[in-house]
Amino acid sequence: MKVAWRKKDVSVREVYETLLTRRPVAYTTVMTMMNTLEAKGYLRKTLDGRAYRYQPGVPEQRVVKAMVREFVDRVFDGASASLAAHLVTDSGLSDAEREELRRLIDGAE
Hints:
two-stranded antiparallel ribbon; 11% strand
């Protein structure tokens, strides 16, 4: 999904080649995953000659929000503050990151 969000319009081959720069992956695995994501509505596909082109079907922010909410519910029993406390105390945030968190908290309702 990250590749599709970044490039907006991709083929299976383009996603495969992008992923291959990071780790070994089979072309058929990428193709299967993209077809699964399309079936679930996360990607849309259009026929371009003999190959399909894929575009994001769901905005990145919506997917991230849902995944974070699910993670907080599953791991922290829905307590967002527990996640925030864990990140602040255990992740070695830089001074700039701490300042950004302060700014976000002060700006929240």
